[in-house]
Amino acid sequence: MLRVRVWRGLGPLCRGGQLSPWRRTQSRTAAGSGSVSTDLSGIYPPIATPFTPEEDVDYGKLEGNLRKYAKIPFRGLVVQGSNGEYPYLTEEERVEVVKAVRRSLPTDKLLMAGSGCESTRATVQLTDKMAAAGADVVLVVTPCFYKGKMDGRALTRHFTKVADSSPVPVVLYSVPANTGLELPLDAVVQLSRHPNIVGLKDSGGDISRIGLIVHKTKAQDFQVLAGSAGFLMAAYSVGAVGGVCALANVLGRELCELESLCVSGRWEEARGLQQRLIEPNAAVTRKLGVPALKQAMEWFGFHGGACRSPLQPLTEAETLQLRSDFTSSGWL
Ligand SMILES: O=C(O)C(=O)C[C@H](O)C(=O)O
């Protein structure tokens, strides 16, 4: 049965009066179980934010990275994901960076902008601004400062309110390593029924949870993205449609190759490539974090540079560790 849901929220227009993409694009989910209004399938780098030595956003360097990413077959870009250092940017900077990316990004590439804030009210407001700045979709992280109170009820209300008013489709973002909480499975399933919530980026890496979410939401217009490269192949095997992976800032082509191997069912080749990506991925994410991602970007010809304080550059020992995690899998 072809299911086409049309959201009756704030109206069909976005990005300078064009039809919003969730009404324009119709395609099948990876699991083949139904149609989707916004096709999220593919690989996205959550782009890093380059800074000048004075810690201002370096738009020239950002532009340089975008020119290089344009040559890689990404589905789109995530702007203001965890690796964009969004908690350290002002609201004005967050919107300006999205505008800058939109100016360079071809319209067939999806711009997913992080609009999550701590309060529902601020998230609703920033979501509107992100849509006006050219975001096709917003990525909304779980609020976490009062994490003891962020149960399924609070989070379901938060995301519902944001999705009710958002002019563009919403993707849920669960990243327990950074927030200290996971969006509960029951809440994800309930939220998947909202007509303006089109997917989840799950960075937790629990494959049985990802598989269960795909299974329990398959009747909905809802897609799951792996939130890190270390479990990309496993996530594809249980029905995820793509990945938002920090490592794509460095090894973007290779991650797109892994995507293509998984989608075409070449699992043996996929396994070999996936295995070589696990160690460098761990190094630029949970082991050494954003400073390591930015250092690795420099080695691979992109602009990484320093993080905004209080994030510190890697120590010498950490830099050696990072290098070894790339060389041992043959990437350097
Ligand atoms: O920066 C983000 O946003 C990510 O999703 C990165 C993710 O946490 C990863 O581990 O790749």
UniProtKB/TrEMBL annotation:
Origin species: Cyclopterus lumpus
The entry's keywords: Lyase, Schiff base
SMART domains given in the database record: DHDPS
Entry keyword Metal-binding: no
Complex formation: Homotetramer.
Residues reported in the UniProt entry to bind pyruvate: 244
Function of the protein: Catalyzes the final step in the metabolic pathway of hydroxyproline.
Higher taxonomy: Eukaryota, Metazoa, Chordata, Craniata, Vertebrata
Reaction(s) the record says it catalyses: (4R)-4-hydroxy-2-oxoglutarate = glyoxylate + pyruvate; (4S)-4-hydroxy-2-oxoglutarate = glyoxylate + pyruvate
Protein name (database record): 4-hydroxy-2-oxoglutarate aldolase, mitochondrial
GO MF term list: (R,S)-4-hydroxy-2-oxoglutarate aldolase activity; 4-hydroxy-tetrahydrodipicolinate synthase activity
Enzyme class: lyase
Entry's family note: Belongs to the DapA family.
Active site: residue positions: 173, 201
One Pfam family here: DHDPS
Its EC number(s): 4.1.3.16
One term under GO cellular component: mitochondrion
GO BP annotations listed: glyoxylate catabolic process
PROSITE patterns to which the protein is assigned, alphabetical: DHDPS_2
InterPro entries the record matches: Aldolase_TIM, DapA-like, Schiff_base-form_aldolases_AS
